[in-house]
């Protein structure tokens, strides 16, 4: 595409703090680049946060702002210096905008997107938000009336954002994630994890760091059966729990151990998804976006320690439509094994869950977001 035909020349994408903000930001950037190869895309993040490493690793430049959130402990030193950080970040954000002269600024949530989008709106630069969760974060709620467009990952955001500015796009996933999620299952996927592939596989994941409650639930499953499990178990214990959980597996009876694979981190998530018959997962917005594409019967266990309990709201948006089983974290230790066994024993229920879950999939979310962005500039 010749440079003169490009829709965009310079764009800033701001936000981060977690993978749930960074991954959709990169997906949007990739789609913009695909359409506009010569477009300069600059990321703006928060100093010391994970985007300062993840974004350059993906091939995009990034500037950092000296900004953090407010501590819930009102006496925290971080709260005392927050006004100084905010003023500094607003000043630096304006400097970045003046130097880079973007045609558009996109915020994906997180600390850094607040000062940057505020200043961009003040300067008359077109602005947009991509909100991943069914319950928006405080930064995006504060910016709602200042931006021209909100690209929503979930329905029902009219409570917080002007309805006329909302477009429900779903949550953008990078092209390689979409491609791998839609691959057909094969025996090689089960064999990669050392399973024969002739038994159903339950895949339990609590995130890259792990989840204590979900690990305790798996331990209960493995110790409550007098005979070997009627299914194989792929268990992502998380890096910080891995050594302890491997020692636990090694203490199990010899006829149980072959049916369990405990891994701290899964580097081939595509094969894990393909091999699974049922999946139990936390309910982060981006995990749900991937799971909807995969379309396997899913049990969602919302984390109880995330801001404003947004994972429960994410999970309910699917469970209310019959697309997933919602299992509270307070109930997971006692009931996860029962829910897995119930699903594996009911093919009709599996099919119903799969049908409703796939109806929530948005494989073209990144394209839809960029389409909407093109219409506001």
Task: Please explain how this structure is put together.
The chain is α/β, with parallel strands linked by helices. The protein has 2 domains: 3-171 and 363-374, Rossmann fold (3-Layer(aba) Sandwich), CATH 3.40.50.2000; 178-358, Glycogen Phosphorylase B (Rossmann fold, 3-Layer(aba) Sandwich). The protein is built from 15 helices and 13 strands. The strands form 2 sheets. A 7-stranded parallel β-sheet has the order 3-2-1-4-5-6-7, sandwiched between helices. Strand 11, helix 11 and strand 12 (298-300) form a beta-alpha-beta unit. Helix 1 packs across helix 15 (365-374), helix 3 (77-100) packs across helix 4 (113-122) and helix 8 (212-224) crosses helix 13 (329-344). The mean pLDDT is 90.
Descriptive labels:
15 helices; 2 domains; single chain; alpha/beta; 7-stranded parallel sheet; 377 residues
Helix and strand topology:
Elements: E1 10-14, H1 19-35, E2 40-46, H2 51-57, E3 62-65, H3 77-100, E4 104-107, H4 113-122, E5 127-131, H5 138-143, E6 149-152, E7 166-168, H6 175-181, H7 187-192, E8 201-205, H8 212-224, E9 232-236, H9 242-250, E10 260-263, H10 269-275, E11 278-281, H11 285-294, E12 298-300, H12 310-319, E13 325-326, H13 329-344, H14 347-358, H15 365-374
Parallel strand pairs: 1-2, 1-4, 2-3, 4-5, 5-6, 6-7, 8-9, 8-11, 9-10, 11-12, 12-13
Helix pairs in contact: 1-15, 3-4, 8-13
Our count of domains comes out at: 2
The CATH superfamily of the largest domain turns out to be Glycogen Phosphorylase B
CATH topology of the largest domain: Rossmann fold
Radius of gyration: 22 Å
- By helix and strand content, what is the structural category? alpha/beta
Major sheet details: 7 strands, parallel
Helix content: 40-55%
* SS elements, strand count: 13
Q: What is the distance, rounded to the nearest whole angstrom, between the alpha carbons of the first and last residues? A: 20 Å
Secondary-structure element order, as H and E? EHEHEHEHEHEEHHEHEHEHEHEHEHHH
Could you name the CATH class of the largest domain?
Answer: Alpha Beta
Name the strands of the widest sheet in spatial order.
3-2-1-4-5-6-7
- The gross shape turns out to be globular
Beta strand %: 5-15%
Low-confidence stretches: none
């Amino acid at each position: 595409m010749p440079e003169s035909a490009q829709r965009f020349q310079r764009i800033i994408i701001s936000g981060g703090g977690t993978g749930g903000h960074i991954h959709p930001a990169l997906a949007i950037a990739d789609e913009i680049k695909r359409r506009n190869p010569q477009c300069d895309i600059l990321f703006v993040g928060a100093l010391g946060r994970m985007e300062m490493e993840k974004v350059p690793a993906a091939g995009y430049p990034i500037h950092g702002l000296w900004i953090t959130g407010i501590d819930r402990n009102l006496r925290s030193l971080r709260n005392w210096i927050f006004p100084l950080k905010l003023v500094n970040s607003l000043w630096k954000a304006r400097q970045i905008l003046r130097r880079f002269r973007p045609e558009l600024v996109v915020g994906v949530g997180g600390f850094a997107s607040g000062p940057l989008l505020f200043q961009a709106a003040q300067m008359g630069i077109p602005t947009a938000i991509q909100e991943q969760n069914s319950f928006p974060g405080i930064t995006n709620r504060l910016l709602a009336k200042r931006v021209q467009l909100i690209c929503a990952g979930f329905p029902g955001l009219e409570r917080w954002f002007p309805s006329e500015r909302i477009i429900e796009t779903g949550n953008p996933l990078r092209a390689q994630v979409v491609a791998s999620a839609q691959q057909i299952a094969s025996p090689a996927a089960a064999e990669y994890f050392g399973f024969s592939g002739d038994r159903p596989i339950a895949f339990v994941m609590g995130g890259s760091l792990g989840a204590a409650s979900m690990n305790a639930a798996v331990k209960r499953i493995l110790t409550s059966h007098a005979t070997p499990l009627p299914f194989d178990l792929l268990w992502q214990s998380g890096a910080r729990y891995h050594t302890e959980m491997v020692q636990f597996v090694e203490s199990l009876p010899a006829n149980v151990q072959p049916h369990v694979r405990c891994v701290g981190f899964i580097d081939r998530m595509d094969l894990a998804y393909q091999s699974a018959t049922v999946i139990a997962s936390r309910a982060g917005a981006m995990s749900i976006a991937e799971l909807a594409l995969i379309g396997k019967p899913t049990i969602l266990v919302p984390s109880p320690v995330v801001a404003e309990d947004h994972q429960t709201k994410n999970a309910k948006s699917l469970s209310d439509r019959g697309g997933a089983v919602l299992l509270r974290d307070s109930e997971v230790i006692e009931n996860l094994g029962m829910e897995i066994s119930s699903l594996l024993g009911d093919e009709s229920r599996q099919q119903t869950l799969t049908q409703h879950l796939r109806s929530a999939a948005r494989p073209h979310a990144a394209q839809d977001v960029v389409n909407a962005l093109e219409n506001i500039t």
